[in-house]
Design goal:
The chain is mainly alpha-helical and 299 residues long. Helices cover 57% and strands 4% of the residues. The protein folds into two domains: 86 residues, DNA polymerase, domain 1 (Orthogonal Bundle), CATH 1.10.150; 181 residues, Intergrase catalytic core (hpI Integrase, Chain A, Orthogonal Bundle). The protein has a three-stranded antiparallel β-sheet. α1 runs antiparallel to α2, α2 packs across α4 and α10 crosses α13. The protein is globular and about 65 Å long.
Length: 299
């Protein structure tokens, strides 16, 4: 089977059977098309010709080209997933990527906002929403929900009105791998959402059931939310990422700072591995040490 066809069919498999997000599928497909081009330069064009040495040479070439460790790790994961799928479906006899390794991605502590900074952001959004503008009311509801429930931006934009249980203050979310979970939110978020639902009919809403819509009534996209959050964070001191994931990091850290159980935070975030959630314990420890250094007279 030609490698170009293999990549196309593998992308369909990732979407239809594995439930990968469109973003992940695009990233894997892009990596694998680069692999196909690299293999073609060595005269390799079919799946049964794809051997471990080709995969290793591809990663080595990327490393020499200055690719980040995180990119190399993703490329390695894409190649291993492809080769495993080829072996399991009987397209090839052996799993060429079973012994493929890549440098571990560098781990950096995520950006976390202080409670004062969160209060400042929300105060500015409340002031805008108090003008009665529908979009400002929507923006407040989005940010309140992102922080209250530590949702991913893709999860927020994919919500329907039927996903909400306002009386119980919970939202039903479909996360990575099409796994469903029910996540709580607090009274301020409920108030913001209720105000938005009152304003929502003033827009020309498409009959999609989307919870958050734009001025023309279509479902809000992730880019719109990124731009909203980036604009809010640009006004605050501090460095690091400025997208919606910063609110997710902040919510998780504040939960642990407040004494929440690690397993409960894992379930709330939708992490498959507890090890992923444990990153936030390191963030909490760093925040504690920083507070100690600035506050203790004998630090």
């Amino acid at each position: 089977m030609q490698l170009e066809r293999v990549v196309d069919e593998f992308a369909v498999y990732l979407t239809a059977e594995r439930g990968f997000s469109p973003h992940t599928v695009r990233a894997y497909a892009s990596d694998l098309r680069d692999l196909v081009a690299f293999a073609g330069e060595s005269g390799v064009s079919t799946a049964d010709e794809l051997e471990l040495e080709i995969l290793r040479d591809w990663l080595w070439h990327g490393s020499n080209a200055g690719l980040a460790k995180s990119t190399l790790a993703r490329r390695s994961a894409a190649a291993r997933s492809l080769s495993l799928w080829l072996a399991r479906t009987g397209v090839v006899g052996t799993d060429a990527g079973a012994r493929l390794r890549a440098p571990k991605a560098d781990k950096h502590l995520p950006r976390v906002l202080t409670r004062g900074q969160i209060d400042e952001i929300l105060a500015s959004l409340i002031a805008r929403a108090d003008t009665g503008d529908a979009i400002a009311t929507r923006d407040l509801a989005i940010v309140e929900l992102l922080y209250a429930s530590a949702l991913r931006v893709s999860e927020v934009t994919s919500l329907d009105t039927s996903s909400l249980d306002v009386s119980r203050m919970t939202v039903r979310v479909v996360g990575k791998g099409s796994k469903e979970r029910v996540v709580p939110f607090g009274i301020p978020a409920r108030r913001a959402i209720e105000n938005w639902l009152l304003r929502r009919p003033t827009l020309t809403v498409d009959d999609t059931g989307a919870l958050f819509v734009g001025a023309r009534g279509a479902r809000v996209g992730t880019r719109t939310v990124y731009q909203l959050i980036a604009g809010l964070l640009a006004e605050l001191p501090g460095s690091g990422p400025s997208g919606p994931h910063t609110l997710r990091h902040t919510a998780a850290t504040h939960l642990l700072d407040g004494g929440a159980d690690l397993r409960s935070v894992q379930e709330m975030l939708g992490h498959a591995s507890l090890g992923t959630t444990q990153l936030y314990t390191h963030v909490s420890a760093e925040r504690l040490k920083e507070s100690y250094r600035t506050a203790h007279p004998r630090a």
